[in-house]
């Protein structure tokens, strides 16, 4: 595996290269895109990004878990989780298949 | 929220940008994440989550309707793990200005 980790800094660089904005502004916009997505999800709303995937918020009920090391039962409180459902386009691209974007 | 709504929301906060620029920005971000995953890289966005890829071995599947066996080739699948701060926010914890700033400084 390549094993490199891409971070915000890399995304900012790409935005800077592709859109004619300053580095500072590119960074601020990358941050804004992420924070708008976070805010939306924090409200419990789904974020659907066509040809990429969807982030969905799910409510998990209370259940009894078990500490795998000690075997002691512990209650797991109801909680909200976020799941990512990759689009078919993303799945295909990761496997080296280029696909036409669906609008 | 869908992509066009996200674009609109950001364009409203940046009246000096064309909507098309904002669209390009959003697409550039998503495209770079996709290309990183296609290379087998990990994408880590503090405060949001991390994307990575996992290999699924080739297997013999079955068409559930006809019962025919079909071979399924080996493939890579994208996986997403929600970040710690995001997980807390989903469960009602307000984002602290400190952790937001820290996330930015680290990235």
UniProtKB/TrEMBL annotation, chain A:
One of its GO terms (biological process) is DNA recombination. PROSITE patterns: HISTONE_LIKE. Keywords: DNA recombination, DNA-binding, Transcription, Transcription regulation, Translation regulation. Gene3D superfamilies: IHF-like DNA-binding proteins (4.10.520.10). GO terms for molecular function: DNA binding; structural constituent of chromatin. GO terms for cellular component: cytosol. SUPFAM superfamilies: IHF-like DNA-binding proteins. It comes from the Bacteria. Belongs to the bacterial histone-like protein family. This protein is one of the two subunits of integration host factor, a specific DNA-binding protein that functions in genetic recombination as well as in transcriptional and translational control. PANTHER family: DNA-BINDING PROTEIN HU, INTEGRATION HOST FACTOR SUBUNIT ALPHA. Heterodimer of an alpha and a beta chain. This is Integration host factor subunit alpha. It comes from Chelatococcus asaccharovorans.
TrEMBL record, chain B:
Keywords: DNA recombination, DNA-binding, Transcription, Transcription regulation, Translation regulation. Pfam families: Bac_DNA_binding. One of its GO terms (molecular function) is structural constituent of chromatin. It comes from the Bacteria. SMART domains: BHL. GO terms for biological process: DNA recombination; regulation of DNA-templated transcription; regulation of translation. InterPro entries: Hist_DNA-bd (IPR000119), Histone-like_DNA-bd_CS (IPR020816), IHF-like_DNA-bd_dom_sf (IPR010992), IHF_beta (IPR005685). Belongs to the bacterial histone-like protein family. This is Integration host factor subunit beta. It comes from Chelatococcus asaccharovorans. The lineage of its organism: Bacteria, Pseudomonadati, Pseudomonadota, Alphaproteobacteria, Hyphomicrobiales. The gene is ihfB.
């Amino acid at each position: 595996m390549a094993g490199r980790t891409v971070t915000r800094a890399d995304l900012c660089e790409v935005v800077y290269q592709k859109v004619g904005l300053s580095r500072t502004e590119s960074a601020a916009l990358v941050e804004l895109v992420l924070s708008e997505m976070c805010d939306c999800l924090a409200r419990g709303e789904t974020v659907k990004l066509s040809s990429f995937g969807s982030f969905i918020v799910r409510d998990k009920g209370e259940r009894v878990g078990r500490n795998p090391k000690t075997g002691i039962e512990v209650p797991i409180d109801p909680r909200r989780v976020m799941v990512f459902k990759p689009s078919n386009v993303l799945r295909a691209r990761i496997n080296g298949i280029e696909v036409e974007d669906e609008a | 929220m869908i992509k066009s709504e996200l674009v609109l929301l950001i364009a409203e906060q940046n009246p000096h940008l064309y909507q098309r620029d904002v669209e390009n920005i959003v697409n550039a971000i998503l495209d770079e994440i996709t290309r990183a995953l296609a290379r087998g890289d990990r994408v880590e966005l503090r405060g949001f989550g991390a994307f990575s890829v996992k290999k699924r071995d080739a297997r013999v599947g079955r068409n559930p309707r006809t019962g025919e066996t079909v071979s399924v080739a080996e493939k890579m699948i994208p996986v997403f793990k929600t970040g710690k701060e995001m997980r807390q926010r989903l469960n009602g914890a307000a984002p602290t200005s400190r952790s937001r700033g820290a996330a930015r400084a680290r990235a």
